[in-house]
Amino acid sequence: MATIYTPKQQRVLLITSLIIIAGFIIAGLRGYASAFLGAGILYVIFKPWFTALVHKHHWNRTLVTSLLIVFALVVIVMPFLTLSLMLAGRIQYYSQHSDDILNLIKKGEELTGIQITSPQNIRSMTQQGASFASRLLPSLAGGALDFIVIIGLMFFTFYFMFVQQEAFQKGLQKYLPFKRETQEELGESLKNNVNANVLGQALVCLVQGILTGLTLWIFGVPDAPFWGTVAFFMAFIPVLGTPLVWAPAALIQLSQGNTGQGIGILVVGAVVIINIDNLLRIALAKRMGDIHPLVTLAGIVLGVPIFGILGLVMGPLLLSYFIVLMQVFERENRKQEKEVAVEKAKVIEQAAKEV
């Protein structure tokens, strides 16, 4: 039986149907987008290990993938979750008991004679800071079931990305609407962003956390190792970072009459820890992934409100992809202009011959 649609109409309707169905799928899975993004990031991180063990040393790929999942769970997920749970109670406490912070700031004002801000602004900033930290750090507040599903979906996706690596890569090459050259540029951009903003940034945060913990221990702050660990995770937050840890510690020491210790923490924090952060970020961003620091900073500001802590990678990646695609667009336009100019020259030459 003949169809009522022309071939062109069929093609338009097919594309429209695909877009509509894809929209429903994305809308339904939007709450679990972090699982797929996390799987992609882990894939880039562990791909060199997988290649070395499976393709060079001929290990069983299922065994290697299972070992990588266990390693990622023990080394990456569990420590982050443990600290998040430890911090959850304190974040909630200080957001609901801002009087403790007010008393601390009042003592600081008495020591310096400078009024920092009004109590209302302090309460507002405390609540906003607690809200930001709660969004950035993974917690079980949103429901244990959602957390388990996200982690399970992430590792499930991660498993099949490696076990069926060839089919996965062929699928990307087949269905991505880019030329092979552009796909390679996008893949290189993804690798550079993960190296610079995951591995590089984790190293920077580790150095800052160790320095913060040592500084607090040297100047007699209780629970220095714990707060050093907190500083490691706080260092991922743009601009604020480790000052969220060592600055309050210094104020507490000053308010308790330990002037030397308080000033010492402030000097080390402002002179050493912050500058180490700036120097290492620039050096590692250039060495581990050639990402401009401005792209990293702007990307983090863009990505964190959208993707949470994964925005540390996804934000710079979006900006990098935008830059790459603009370069591809410019290159294709130049290529097309050259082709048009060549064709025009051939037509003119042919016309001259005929004359």
From TrEMBL:
It is a multi-pass membrane protein. It holds the Pfam family AI-2E_transport. It is found in: Membrane. Keywords: Membrane, Transmembrane, Transmembrane helix. Its main location: membrane. InterPro entries: AI-2E-like (IPR002549). The keyword Transmembrane helix applies. The chain crosses the membrane at residues 12-29, 35-54, 66-88, 140-162, 198-220, 226-251, 263-284, 296-329. PANTHER family: TRANSMEMBRANE PROTEIN, TRANSMEMBRANE PROTEIN 245. Belongs to the autoinducer-2 exporter (AI-2E) (TC 2.A.86) family. This is PurR-regulated permease PerM.
